[in-house]
Amino acid sequence: MKKIDKEVADRYFRERTRNIIIYFIIWFIVSFGVVMFAEPLSNFTINGFPFHYFMGAQGAVLTFIILLFVNAKVSDNIDKKYGIDESKNEQISSGKVLDH
């Protein structure tokens, strides 16, 4: 198995951790921010419903699904940037690696 330098591993996990923190901030704003500011947000309407109701009923769920796809795409790009190859990991876990 290929060894990764500590400096490269630290940069990799720092970048992944930064992205996770950004996702949590977005999650917090969508989940709790809309509820905290429900009264001022009720002036806006989407499909005839107040904005805070729409975000609670459908908008939050859609935002979380979008966050899942964004996280998957960004994580794949970060893995490629730091040389982490998924197909190589699958080979190693199946025991079919020829170059030990």
From TrEMBL:
Query: Which keywords accompany this UniProt record?
Result: Membrane, Transmembrane, Transmembrane helix
Q: Does the keyword Thylakoid apply?
A: no
Highest taxon in the source lineage: Bacteria
Q: Where is the Sodium symporter small subunit domain?
A: 10-85
Extract the signal peptide range: none
Bilayer-crossing residues are: 20-38, 50-70
Q: Name one Pfam family in it.
A: DUF4212
Name the record gives this protein: DUF4212 domain-containing protein
Q: Which organism is it from?
A: Cytobacillus spartinae
